[in-house]
Amino acid sequence: MELNVIQMEGDMSEILAVNGGPKAITLDQDEALRWPRLTEEDEQAVLDLMRKNEISVSEEPKKLEKEFAEFLGAKYALAEVNGTAAIYAALFILGIKEGDEVICPSYTYWATAMPASTLGAKVVFCEVDPHNLNMDTEDFKKRITPDTKAVIPVHLWGLPCEMDEIMDVAWEHGIAVIEDACHAHGAEYRGKKMGTLGDFGTFSFQASKNLPGGEGGMLITDNREYYFKAITLGHYRRAADLPERYSRYQHTCLGFKHRMSPLHAAITRVQLKTLNEKNLVRSVNIEKLLNALDELRGFHIYRPPSYIKRVYYENDIIYRGEETGVPIDRLIEMLNAEGAEVRRDRYPLLHQQPYYVERGSNPEDLPITREVNEQIMALPTFPGDDGSLVEQYIKAFRKVAASF
Ligand SMILES: Cc1ncc(COP(=O)(O)O)c(C=O)c1O
Description:
This protein has 16 helices and 16 strands. It is globular, with a radius of gyration of 23 Å. It has two domains: about 40-270, Aspartate Aminotransferase, domain 2; about 275-400, Alpha-Beta Complex (Aspartate Aminotransferase, domain 1), CATH 3.90.1150.10. It is of the alpha/beta class. Helix 3 (about 60-70) packs parallel to helix 11 (about 260-270). The longest helix is centred in the last third of the chain and has 19 residues, at about 275-295. A hairpin with a 5-residue loop joins strand 1 (about 5) and strand 2 (about 15). The strands form four sheets. It has a seven-stranded mixed β-sheet, with helices on both faces. A four-stranded antiparallel β-sheet has the order 12-14-16-15, with helices on one face. The structure holds pyridoxal-5'-phosphate. Pyridoxal-5'-phosphate binds next to helix 4.
């Protein structure tokens, strides 16, 4: 068998690990990639509540609401059982029902779309921008009909959507904007935190998220009536303190029990204290890697404009195998052999899922989304790396790319 020998700096040659050579990545990765990063402070916060017997009814979620609203610069924050419930609440408050249409991208987690379907509305999927994977405003505009009532832009992987454009189109057509900020805790658009620009912001505190609480979510709004309605929907006890038009539902609420568990709120509160710091560790490490990838053939690194401050929930990049002659699956195989924990994108496109196809969605629609979906590679976010692991990743990518 002919070995793939490549020329390295200083005329050293190195054999790709996939061909039996030594791995470029030799450091232990468990600690550098471990997430969430819980400490004794998280344990103590949970223990304190357990000792006070506050494992269900507690002021803890309200404390989180106050702190998170302050962090975002938002008026009202309501702690929800998860991010899905927050999105449902926003749609419910808007009165979304059968006959209405809600626009969102297909390339997202199902919870962006399914709450609208549950309420009987038609979900209309729009294209993403193939450079940054966020909703394409022009395509969103084309899909508006007289029945469109809401749009749900997703700040995918922590990258803020072009909110000025989206808000302008939405305002022009009288469409409500529900930001799915479940990936974007701490990200900013023109100095404003994501989740505070639309009519609603929705967040998830599920364990993998940048602000992990285990499970939990938050609904954000500056509209007092919306806030009251959200309480009435899923927080029956708290409805007692609202004006009569809402408090009369305190013994039934309007359908759900959406309150967040205090134990999860306690963890989220502790994690919030270091959110910025932890976002920064990811950004510094990831950007070092992306700068290196930018110089390699086939890798397309998106750089947001200066008025966008992104965070990294995931570190997804676009790779075009036709530019290098090495298909993405082969590249991943080569990188995995070097020890790199890289993989294909993980979202199955929603418009191709049986639930939507059975309801008239055309799986052949959204050619841009379908094409880019084949080019996405997820790299680690290095949340606990002091920079040394990322250096080895750079070495691995350069080694593999030198064989193209
Ligand atoms: C884009 C997006 N929206 C909504 C959600 C729903 O959040 P949760 O899992 O807390 O219900 C998620 C969760 O992963 C998500 O990724």
